[in-house]
Write a structure and sequence with these properties.
The protein starts with a strand and ends with a strand. The strands form three sheets. Strands 2-6-7-5-4-3 form a six-stranded antiparallel β-sheet. The chain has one domain. It is mainly β and about 210 residues long. The protein has two helices and 15 strands.
Length: about 210
C-alpha cells in the first residue's frame, strides 16, 4: 500500500522531469516542450522506505514515454549518475529522486511483478485524518514465470545500465531487466521472459512496459 500525502512539492514532479528527461537518448519530445502526465502507478517497497513510482508522460506531440523513479529520504550511495534531482516535500522534507533503472529497490519491485505476479501498489490518501482509497490512473499487471528464481536486492556497484533511443537495459543480480521507454504495440518480449504490461487513459489495450529475463 502506498500512502499519498496532500503535500506541496518544490519543484513539482513534472518540473523535475523537465530538467532531466530531454538529456536522455530515449526522449522523444521536441526541444522546448514540457512533460505532461498521462498516468502513473506505484510498486510497494518491501521495507516501506522508498517511494517507487512510474510516470507515463508525453511532451508535445511525442509518444508516451515511461519514466520509473524512486523517492528517497537520503542520497543513495554510489548512484550519483542516476540522480534526477532533489525536491522539497512539505510533509516528508527533502527527497532525492532517482531514475528507477539505477535504483535496486525499483528493480526488485518490478522484477517481482514480472516473474512472480506481484501486484501494483494500492493507493491511499489521508484526508481530514482518515485514509481514503484512491484509484490509480494506470493499471498494470505482471506474469508468473514457472521456475523463476526468488528476486534479491541488487547492489548499486554491480548494476550495468545502458539506454538507447527506445529502452533501458539493466543487468542486476542475475537478471536482465528491460524498461521499454516508448511503449508500442510493435514491441514483443523475448521468449520465456516475464513481463509487465499496462493500460491508461487513451490506451485501452495493454502495452508491454518491462521484460525480465532470469
Amino acid at each position: 500500500m502506498a500512502l499519498l500525502h496532500q503535500a506541496e512539492l518544490r519543484p513539482s514532479k513534472m518540473e523535475l522531469l523537465d530538467g532531466w528527461a530531454p538529456s536522455q537518448p530515449w526522449f522523444r519530445g521536441e526541444p522546448g516542450t514540457t512533460c505532461r502526465s498521462v498516468g502513473a502507478f506505484r510498486w510497494d517497497d518491501p521495507e516501506g522506505e522508498v517511494g517507487v513510482e512510474t510516470h507515463l508522460v508525453s511532451a508535445g506531440d511525442s509518444p508516451v514515454m515511461q519514466i520509473p523513479v524512486t523517492y528517497r529520504g537520503a542520497p543513495l550511495a554510489g548512484a550519483e549518475q542516476h540522480l534526477i534531482g532533489t525536491m522539497e516535500h512539505s510533509v516528508l522534507g527533502p527527497r532525492w529522486v532517482y531514475d528507477g533503472a539505477g535504483d535496486p529497490v525499483y528493480l526488485l519491485t518490478v522484477a517481482s511483478a514480472a516473474l512472480h505476479g506481484a501486484p501494483q501498489a494500492s493507493l491511499e490518501i489521508e484526508i481530514d485524518g482518515k485514509l481514503v482509497a484512491r484509484e490509480p490512473n494506470a493499471a498494470v499487471s505482471g506474469t508468473v514465470v514457472d521456475g523463476a528464481p526468488e528476486v534479491s536486492l541488487a547492489t548499486v556497484d554491480f548494476l550495468t545500465v545502458a539506454s538507447d533511443e527506445s529502452q533501458t537495459v539493466v543487468d542486476a543480480a542475475g537478471l536482465r531487466i528491460t524498461v521499454i521507454r516508448t511503449p508500442s504495440s510493435s514491441v514483443a518480449p523475448p521468449a520465456g521472459a516475464g513481463t509487465v504490461s499496462g493500460t491508461w487513459e487513451g490506451q485501452p489495450g495493454p502495452l508491454l512496459l518491462v521484460t525480465v529475463e532470469a
